[in-house]
């Protein structure tokens, strides 16, 4: 795993203007003539959990790396904790926590030693409000690694290593935590514990920006969901609101006389009332299903993909190309 290493001179101050921690406007990124980000804009506030969704190759990692200061953008305005990441100092970097990939370089270290060692870099930046670093025993308990405290990193299971990744990411008590697919490879119990950990960090005012391909996880964790597709943010809002916006329709399923029926309607309450008026007790197995976040997500991504395919066809035909 790679973390934001803290070097002398780091410190922490409050985020600017009433709690805006991330402010992205018209962000553009072009790789070798190919536009990946075409005007991305969003904000994140202090203590907010923001989940960035998008299909493979949409540019999520690119966006996060730009915010972390690891990648130079092509254009646009980006402010993270009051600073342009392109000019981020070590002092600024100390306020970020970054969980990128599995920590492989320190296999011989024991878990407790590694966390104590990395945490020691943060000690100079402890404040009365934010005690740095996180006490190692408390941190081990928080990520569920108490029993592995004296094990060597190289002997941990994949899921335990992922927990260690997270511990390394938060040992300095970051104000802003970036998590790129943090629960990939975790079992359901570890995943659920991890969700509790993220919510706990947010309750203590840590802002969290995370990517995942697990829509149930996004729904459970996010204060706000961003969908990145076609180089732009195509949706931005609470999970429930996104689902309602995409479709006012609900699917009603029922059985009668041993046969299964299904109806899609924008007025499920009225429909169900009529159904019972007509057939009464003969109705069984009633199920009313509203659009889920997954429905919303797939609809939006397909619309963007269909739109860009149509756009490309139009551009080709205007250039006189047959396909
Ligand atoms: N260094 C690079 N040089 C050229 N192209 C790149 C580079 N890094 C990423 N890309 C391209 O930019 C696009 C976005 O990549 P990115 O990794 O940001 O997507 P992602 O949304 O994180 O995808 P995934 O869900 O698969 O992890 C892809 O088409 C990728 O091939």
UniProtKB/TrEMBL annotation:
SMART domains, alphabetized: AAA
Major subcellular location class: membrane
Membrane topology: Peripheral membrane protein
InterPro entries: AAA+_ATPase, ABC_transporter-like_ATP-bd, ABC_transporter-like_CS, ABC_transporter_ATP-binding, P-loop_NTPase
Keyword DNA damage: no
PANTHER family noted in UniProt: ABC TRANSPORTER ATP-BINDING PROTEIN
Stated name of the protein: ABC transporter ATP-binding protein
Entry-linked Gene3D superfamilies: P-loop containing nucleotide triphosphate hydrolases
Subcellular location: Cell membrane
A GO MF label: ATP binding
Keywords: Antibiotic resistance, ATP-binding, Nucleotide-binding, Transport
Domain ABC transporter: start-end pairs: 22-255
């Amino acid at each position: 795993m790679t973390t934001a290493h803290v070097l002398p001179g780091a410190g922490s101050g409050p985020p600017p203007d009433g709690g805006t921690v991330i402010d992205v406007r018209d962000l553009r990124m072009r790789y070798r003539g190919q536009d990946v980000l075409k005007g991305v804009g969003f904000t994140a506030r202090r203590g907010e959990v923001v989940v960035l969704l998008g299909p493979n190759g949409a540019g999520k990692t690119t966006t996060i790396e730009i915010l972390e200061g690891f990648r130079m953008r092509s254009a646009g305005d980006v402010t993270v904790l009051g600073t342009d990441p392109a000019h981020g100092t070590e002092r600024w970097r100390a306020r970020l926590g970054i969980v990128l990939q599995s920590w492989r370089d320190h296999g011989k270290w024991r878990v407790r030693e590694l966390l104590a060692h990395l945490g020691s870099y943060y000690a100079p930046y402890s404040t009365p409000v934010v005690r740095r670093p996180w006490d190692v025993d408390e941190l081990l308990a928080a990520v569920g690694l108490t029993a592995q405290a004296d094990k060597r990193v190289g002997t941990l299971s994949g899921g335990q290593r992922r927990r260690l990744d997270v511990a390394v990411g938060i040992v300095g008590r970051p104000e802003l935590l970036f998590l790129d697919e943090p629960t990939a490879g975790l079992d359901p119990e570890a995943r659920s514990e991890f969700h509790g950990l993220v919510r706990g960090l947010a309750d203590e005012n840590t802002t969290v920006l995370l990517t995942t391909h697990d829509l149930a996880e996004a729904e459970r964790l996010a204060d706000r969901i961003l969908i990145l597709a076609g180089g732009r943010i195509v949706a931005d809002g609470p999970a429930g609101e996104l689902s309602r916006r995409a479709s006012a329709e609900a699917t009603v399923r029922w059985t009668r006389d041993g046969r299964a029926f299904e109806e899609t309607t924008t007025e499920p309450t009225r429909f169900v009332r009529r159904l019972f008026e007509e057939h009464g007790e003969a109705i069984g197995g009633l199920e009313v299903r509203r659009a889920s976040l997954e429905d919303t997500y797939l609809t939006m991504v397909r619309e963007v993909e269909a739109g860009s395919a149509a756009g490309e066809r139009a551009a080709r035909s205007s250039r006189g190309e047959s396909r």
